[in-house]
C-alpha cells in the first residue's frame, strides 16, 4: 500500500472518528440511540361470589341439569354416571341407554373436585369439608352428613380465607391488559393472580357388600370395603364408612413425598401415584395403611392402575409436572416391595388409563384414545385408535369405555374388539 | 406502515437501477464487514455480508448478518448505496429488512418463566462510508451509521395444570427496539 494511500486512510479515520462522535451524540441526545422495551401483559383477576353457608347447604340437592363446562372426576355406578364439574358440583347422567345418555340433574357443591360412591351413598368434597349424600333417588339426593375441616389443604388461597358463615360459589373472571415501559429490556415479573385448579376422580374394586362406583385413573378418592381413602398432596386420609351415612375420620398417614396425585385401590393394596414415583400401601389394617413398596421415576404426572401382576403408569410432561418423559411404564409386581420396570412405551402426552381384561385403554392427549391388547406386556398390540379428540381420562368397564375428552364425554362399545365403535357423546361447552 | 415503506423502497430500487443499467455495465460485488454496535446499554459485535450488483455509481444487494447486541439476531435486509465521486470512494447506504431472532429463548433461563417464543421485527440501517482500493478487485471499507432492530418475546409461565383440561398459561409480550450507532469495517471483492 503506498504512502499516499496510508495518509488518505489516516485522514479518513480521523474524519470518520469525528463524524462518528458527532453523529453519535446527535443521535444519542436525539433519542435514536436507545434501548426500548414495552411489556404487554394480561392478568386475570378473580372476584369471588359468596353465598351464606346456609344458602349453600340448602342448595345441595338435585337441581335442574346444567351443561358440562369443565369436567373433572367421574364415577359410574349402575345406570348412572356422576361427573364432577370442577369447583361447582356433580352432574347426574342417566346412562340406562348408553347410546343416549341423559343429563338429568346437577348437585350444587361449591369447591367440589372429588367424589366416590358406595351403594346409595356418594361422598364428595366441599372445599375443606366432606359431604355425604344419599343418592338412592338420584333425582332427589339428600345430605346425610358434613365432616367439616377434614381437607384443610382445600382452603381458598389467593388471598381469600375460609369463613364459617359464607362460601365461595363462583368467581367473576376479568382479564385486564396492561402495556408498560420496561426500560432497557429487562424481563419483568408478571403480576397475574391465578386461581389454581385441579381435578381428580375415583376408582375402586372391593368385596364390600354394597357396589362401589368405578372411577377413572385420576382419582383422589377411593373406597375399599368399609374405608374411604383420600389423598392430598402429602397425606393419605382414612375415613371409616362402616355406617355409610356416618363417615368417621380415622387417621392420616403422611406419605414421604410432596406431589401425590392419584390413588388406585386393588385388592388389599393402594397404589398411590406421585410426580416422583408410585407407592404401594398395604391395607390389611384398613385404618393404618403401611408402605410396602415404591418405584421412583423421573418427575412427571403419573396416574397409575394395577392388575394382579403389573402396574401401569403413564408419565406426561407439558405442565407443572415438569420432566421430559411421555411414556407408559409397566412395572412387575411379583413382589410389591420392589416393583421392577418391565418395559416403557413412548406416547405423545398420556393422561388417564384403564384396563379391562387384556384390553388397555390409554388417553394420549391430542392423539386421542388408544386401545391395546396387553396380553403380553412386553409387546403391546394397538387394536384401535380414535383420533381427532383430545382425551384426558377413561373408565373401561363392562364392555363400555367412558372417555372424558376436551369437547365431550364419549362412550365406546368394546364388547366386540373387532368392532369397537362410538355409542354416544355428551358435549362439553368450553368457555 | 412497514409494508408501505418496504414497497416504496423496492420501487425506488427498481427505478434507480432501470435508469442506471441503461448506460453502465453491471458488476457483482461482495461486501463483508465486521463492526461494533454502540447502544444505550452495551457495545457488542456485528457481522454482515452483502452481495449484490453495482451499476454506475449505485449498488444494490441482499445482506445477512449476525447482530450480537442484547439478543443475538440475524438481520436479513436489502442494501442500497450511492457512491459520490468518480472513483466511488465516499458513499451513503440504507438498509431495510427483517430481524430474525437467533434463538427461541433469550439465551439464559429466567426464573419464573418457563415458556419462551421470540419472533422478529423490522431492521433498518443507514450511514456513510468510505471505500479504499487496495488492489484492482479488492477494497477496504469503513462505514458508520445508525441501525435499529426490533424483536418480540412472548414469554410466559405455565402456572398450574389440572389433571384434566388445559393448563393455565400466562403470557407477556415484550417488544424490544434497539437503536444503535454502528461502526463497521470490511473487505469488498
Could you explain how this protein is built, in words?
- Chain A has 431 residues and is mostly beta strands.
- Chain A has helices at 3-30, 53-58; strands at 35-52, 62-63, 71-77, 80-85, 89-94, 102-108, 115-118, 121-126, 129-134, 142-147, 166-181, 201-202, 214-215, 219-224, 227-231, 235-240, 248-254, 260-266, 269-274, 277-282, 290-296, 304-306, 310-315, 327-332, 340-346, 353-356, 359-363, 369-373, 381-386, 391-397, 400-405, 408-413, 421-427.
- Chain A has a domain at 39-202.
- The radius of gyration of chain A is 28 Å and the shape is globular.
- Chain B has a single domain (2-13, 24-103, 119-149, 177-188), classed as Porin (Beta Barrel), CATH 2.40.160.20.
- Chain B has one helix at residues 2-21; strands at residues 26-38, 43-55, 58-67, 73-83, 90-101, 115-133, 139-160, 168-188.
- In chain B, strands 1-2-3-4-5-6-7-8 form an eight-stranded antiparallel beta barrel.
- The radius of gyration of chain B is 20 Å and the shape is elongated.
- The chains are: A mainly beta (431), B mainly beta (189).
- The interface between A and B is large, with 61 and 46 residues.
Amino acid at each position: 500500500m503506498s504512502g499516499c494511500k496510508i495518509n488518505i486512510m489516516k485522514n479518513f479515520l480521523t474524519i470518520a472518528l469525528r463524524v462518528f462522535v458527532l453523529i453519535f451524540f446527535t443521535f444519542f441526545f436525539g433519542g435514536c440511540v436507545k434501548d426500548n422495551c414495552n411489556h404487554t401483559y394480561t392478568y386475570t383477576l378473580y372476584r369471588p361470589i359468596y353465598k351464606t353457608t346456609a344458602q349453600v347447604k340448602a342448595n345441595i340437592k338435585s337441581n335442574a341439569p346444567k351443561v358440562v363446562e369443565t369436567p373433572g372426576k367421574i364415577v359410574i355406578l349402575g345406570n348412572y354416571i356422576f361427573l364432577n364439574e370442577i369447583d361447582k358440583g356433580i352432574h347426574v347422567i342417566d346412562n340406562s341407554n348408553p347410546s343416549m345418555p341423559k343429563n338429568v340433574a346437577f348437585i350444587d357443591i361449591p369447591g367440589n373436585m372429588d367424589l366416590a360412591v358406595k351403594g346409595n351413598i356418594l361422598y364428595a368434597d366441599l372445599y375443606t369439608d366432606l359431604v355425604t349424600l344419599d343418592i338412592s333417588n338420584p333425582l332427589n339426593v339428600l345430605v346425610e352428613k358434613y365432616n367439616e375441616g377434614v381437607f384443610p389443604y382445600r382452603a381458598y388461597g389467593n388471598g381469600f380465607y375460609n369463613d364459617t358463615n359464607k362460601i365461595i360459589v363462583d368467581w367473576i373472571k376479568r382479564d385486564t391488559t396492561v402495556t408498560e415501559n420496561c426500560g432497557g429490556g429487562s424481563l419483568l415479573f408478571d403480576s397475574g393472580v391465578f386461581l389454581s385448579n385441579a381435578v381428580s376422580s375415583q376408582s375402586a374394586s372391593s368385596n364390600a357388600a354394597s357396589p362401589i362406583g368405578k372411577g377413572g385413573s385420576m382419582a383422589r378418592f377411593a373406597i375399599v370395603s368399609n374405608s374411604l381413602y383420600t389423598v392430598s398432596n402429602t397425606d393419605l386420609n382414612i375415613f371409616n364408612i362402616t355406617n355409610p351415612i356416618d363417615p368417621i375420620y380415622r387417621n392420616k398417614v403422611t406419605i414421604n413425598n410432596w406431589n401425590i396425585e392419584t390413588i388406585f385401590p386393588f385388592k388389599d393394596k393402594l397404589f398411590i401415584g406421585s410426580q416422583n414415583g408410585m407407592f404401594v400401601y398395604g391395607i390389611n389394617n384398613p385404618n393404618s395403611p403401611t408402605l410396602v413398596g415404591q418405584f421412583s421415576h423421573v418427575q412427571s404426572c403419573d396416574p397409575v392402575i394395577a392388575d394382579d401382576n403389573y402396574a401401569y403408569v403413564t408419565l406426561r410432561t407439558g405442565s407443572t409436572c415438569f420432566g421430559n418423559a411421555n411414556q407408559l411404564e409397566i412395572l412387575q409386581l411379583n413382589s410389591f416391595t420392589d416393583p421392577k420396570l418391565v418395559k416403557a412405551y413412548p406416547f405423545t402426552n398420556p393422561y388417564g388409563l384403564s384396563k379391562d381384561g387384556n384390553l388397555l385403554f390409554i388417553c394420549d392427549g391430542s392423539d386421542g384414545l388408544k386401545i391395546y391388547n396387553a396380553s403380553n406386556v412386553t409387546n403391546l398390540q394397538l387394536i384401535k385408535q380414535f383420533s381427532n379428540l383430545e382425551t384426558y381420562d377413561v373408565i373401561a368397564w363392562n364392555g363400555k369405555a367412558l372417555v372424558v375428552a376436551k369437547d365431550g364425554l364419549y362412550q365406546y362399545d368394546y364388547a366386540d374388539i373387532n368392532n369397537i365403535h362410538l355409542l354416544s357423546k355428551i358435549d362439553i361447552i368450553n368457555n | 406502515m412497514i409494508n408501505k415503506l418496504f414497497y416504496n423502497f423496492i420501487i425506488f430500487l427498481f427505478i434507480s437501477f432501470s435508469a442506471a443499467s441503461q448506460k453502465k455495465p453491471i458488476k457483482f460485488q461482495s461486501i463483508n464487514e465486521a463492526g461494533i454496535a454502540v447502544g444505550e446499554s452495551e457495545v457488542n459485535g456485528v457481522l454482515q455480508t452483502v452481495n449484490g450488483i453495482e451499476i454506475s455509481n449505485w449498488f444494490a444487494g441482499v445482506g445477512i448478518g449476525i447482530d450480537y447486541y442484547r439478543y443475538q439476531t440475524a438481520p436479513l435486509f436489502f442494501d442500497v448505496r450511492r457512491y459520490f465521486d468518480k472513483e466511488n470512494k465516499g458513499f451513503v447506504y440504507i438498509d431495510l429488512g427483517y430481524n430474525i431472532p437467533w434463538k427461541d429463548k433469550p439465551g439464559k433461563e429466567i426464573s419464573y418463566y418457563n415458556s419462551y417464543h421470540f419472533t422478529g421485527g423490522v431492521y433498518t440501517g443507514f450511514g456513510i462510508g468510505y471505500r479504499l482500493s487496495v488492489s484492482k478487485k479488492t477494497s477496504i471499507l469503513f462505514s458508520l451509521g445508525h441501525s435499529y432492530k426490533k424483536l418480540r418475546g412472548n414469554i410466559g409461565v405455565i402456572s398450574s395444570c389440572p389433571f384434566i383440561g388445559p393448563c393455565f398459561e400466562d403470557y407477556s409480550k415484550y417488544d424490544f427496539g434497539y437503536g444503535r450507532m454502528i461502526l463497521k469495517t470490511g473487505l469488498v471483492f
